[in-house]
Write a structure and sequence with these properties.
The complex is a heterodimer of chains A (242) and B (221).
Chain A (H helix, E strand, L loop, with lengths): L1 E10 L2 E11 L4 E5 L6 H8 L7 E6 L2 E2 L7 H5 L2 E4 L11 H11 L5 H14 L15 H13 L5 E5 L7 H16 L3 E5 L3 H7 L2 E6 L2 E7 H6 L4 H10 L3
Parallel strand pairs in A: 3-8, 3-9, 6-7, 7-8
Antiparallel strand pairs in A: 1-2, 1-4, 4-5, 9-10
Helix pairs in contact in A: 3-4, 3-5, 4-5, 5-6
Chain B lengths: L9 H38 L3 H15 L3 H16 L4 H28 L2 H9 L4 H31 L11 H11 L3 H33 L1
Helix pairs in contact in B: 1-2, 1-4, 1-6, 1-7, 2-4, 3-4, 4-6, 5-6, 6-8, 7-8
The chains are: A alpha/beta (242), B mainly alpha (221).
Chain lengths: 242, 221
């Protein structure tokens, strides 16, 4: 579903991604982890071309993201993305947040869009907040709305860019629960996250990045059982101490 | 010698002032609407990472902001007949000049407004499949406009005061109305005093409403 081949990227003279290759198959959940500054957020943003790359190739559902001829808005509409800071539209109600792109991009009627939005709000347990504005919701609630907003587009795959790292601890689980449910339903997911509990529960594979490189790409069992690289061992020992 | 305001009657207001007031207000509203519209386009061009858009936009804005308005008013008045081969009258000339000039100022305000909206907002729009134009129109600009509303209105008050500069090309605005009345009744001092009072009342009450708006927005956000 998602194929990343030999991708390199520079910010000015600084190389953030070094020859990265990875893939996410249909129905697979891949967790990308690594120390901060390792390039994992940058990598996931390259998948739907929110960040340009200088070398390599990325395809999503067989469509080359990096080809200048590709209709990017059309492609992005098929890939859901959830951001660290939610990025709900503060000037629109929760309902409008969920229907905007359905109507403007997918050309659904207002009724169809509303129906879909309510169904998804129900699913993330926020139907009664439909008429509120993002600023009136807690962080955890906002992130659940953001997930619902992405799902409203019926995406082929979902990208999560550190979806819980801006949340207060007591709100992390309500978001992870939604993500676990999605994974169990067979959604194709690429998740940048530090939540190793989540990775253990639902990931099929774990990609470990450090210094702009993909250091390890292993099945969950291998990664948590016997990580091959020293850097991954060190990272896990730090993060799993408590 | 005291001020004699007895010449100031409803008849005088009707004959000399209303027409001028209407012109000043219409000029302000048209230049504001056009200025915000073109100013927003200029701001987006200036923020673009395409140099062929950003450079000319920056050049235009900086040029307009570096010359006196009266000069531009006179210059356009003389330039337009030269360009299109016939005069278009002081009123139309003023409308075009003010729109072109104010666009530069509104553009700087809208540029700050767009920059006040988090970058992630545009990214979220793109990620949902919105085009650049849709992301701007539906996501970024409404927020930028709301954030900048008090500053946009303040600029509009300045614009209203500046409309009096059309005296340079002989257009009939509110100030010209007072001046003409003062001449006709041989009461120039009184006429200018009244003009000052009228401009003060209009502008002061407008800035009062900007302050109220700012307080209300501070509560909402």
């Amino acid at each position: 579903m998602i194929e990343i081949r030999n991708v390199s990227k520079w910010f000015g003279a600084f190389q953030v991604l070094k020859d990265c290759s990875a893939r996410v198959d249909k129905g697979e959940v891949v967790v990308v982890c690594g120390p901060s500054g390792s390039g994992k957020s940058t990598l996931i943003k390259c998948v739907n071309a929110l960040e340009p790359i200088q070398e390599g190739e990325i395809t999503v559902a067989g469509i080359p993201v990096t080809d200048p001829k590709t209709d990017l808005p059309k492609l992005r509409a098929k890939v859901g993305m959830v951001f660290q800071h939610f990025e709900l539209f503060p000037h629109l109600s929760i309902m409008q947040n969920l229907t905007l792109a359905q109507v403007r991009v997918l050309r659904r009627t207002r009724e169809e869009a509303n129906e879909k939005a309510l169904k998804l709000l129900d699913r993330v347990g926020l139907r009664d907040q439909a008429q509120k504005f993002p600023g009136q919701l807690s962080g955890g609630q906002q992130q659940r709305v953001a997930i619902a907003r992405a799902l409203a587009m019926d995406p082929l795959a979902m990208l999560f860019d550190e979806p819980t790292s801006a949340l207060d601890p007591e709100m992390i689980n309500e978001v992870l629960d939604v993500m676990v449910e999605l994974a169990h339903e067979g959604m194709t997911m690429m998740c940048v996250t530090h939540e190793m509990g989540f990775a253990r529960k639902v990931a099929h594979r774990v990609v470990f990045m450090d210094g702009g490189e993909i250091v390890e790409d292993a099945s969950k069992e291998d990664f948590f059982g016997k990580p091959r690289s020293e850097r991954a061992q060190l990272f896990l020992s730090k993060i799993l101490q408590h | 010698m005291g001020l004699d305001l007895s010449f100031f009657t409803w008849d005088l207001a009707r004959n000399f002032l209303i027409g001028g007031l209407i012109f000043s207000v219409v000029l302000t509203l048209v230049a504001m609407t056009g200025g915000i519209f073109f100013g927003t386009l200029l701001a987006l061009a200036r923020l673009s990472d395409r140099p062929w858009l950003a450079f000319p936009a920056a050049g235009y804005v900086n040029a307009m902001r570096s010359v006196p308005l009266v000069m531009v008013i006179l210059w356009f008045f003389l330039l337009i007949p030269f360009l299109i081969g016939r005069p278009i009258g002081a009123e139309w000339s003023a409308v075009i000049t003010f729109t072109a000039f104010e666009s530069a100022y509104y553009s700087e305000i809208m540029r700050a407004g767009v920059q006040s909206v988090a970058r992630g907002q545009a990214a979220a729009g793109f990620a949902l499949g919105l085009t650049y134009a849709q992301s701007m129109r539906l996501v970024v600009l409404p927020q930028a406009f709301r954030n900048m509303l008090p500053v946009l209105l303040t600029q509009t008050i300045i614009l209203f005061q500046d409309t009096s500069l059309v005296y340079a090309i002989g257009a009939y605005d509110l100030l010209k109305g007072f001046e003409t009345a003062g001449k006709n009744f041989n009461r120039p001092v009184e006429a200018y005093t009244l003009a000052a009072v009228v401009y003060f009342v209009i502008c002061y009450s407008l800035s009062g409403s900007v302050r109220r708006l700012q307080r209300r927005m501070a509560v909402v956000r």
